[in-house]
Design goal:
CATH architecture: 3-Layer(aba) Sandwich
Radius of gyration: 13 Å
Order of helices and strands: HEHEHEEH
Helix content: 25-40%
Shape: globular
Number of strands: 4
CATH class: Alpha Beta
Strand order of the largest sheet: 1-2
Structural class: alpha+beta
CATH topology: Glutaredoxin
Number of domains: 1
Largest sheet: 2 strands, parallel
Strand content: 15-25%
Length: 94
């Protein structure tokens, strides 16, 4: 988290959970970033990541969004284990 803060970057996770479920996940994982609930998957669908793997949830994804709200870079996983590393994401931010 500190590496992202040094880059003046905020992290936000969006999940298909309810508010209560998202808060429980935040507590269990000790996440230092916001986890926003999207139980109807509206945002997940807008970003085109909902149910891509046929599991009824969002595919693991990373979006770097510019201050003007345009997407600078995105990574949408091909399977549950396919995720960029922190270093890969930080390189895209720099």
């Amino acid at each position: 988290m500190s590496e992202f803060q040094e880059e003046n970057t905020s992290l936000i996770a969006i999940s298909k959970d309810t508010f209560e479920q998202a808060q429980l996940v935040k507590l269990i994982t000790q996440a230092e970033y916001m986890i926003l609930p999207d139980p109807e998957a509206n945002v997940l669908k807008e970003y085109g990541v909902f149910d891509l793997l046929g599991d009824g949830v969002a595919a693991p994804s990373v979006f770097i969004i510019n201050p003007d709200m345009t997407i600078y870079w995105s990574y949408i996983s091909k399977d549950i284990r396919d995720r960029p590393t922190t270093d890969e994401i930080l390189q895209k931010i720099n």
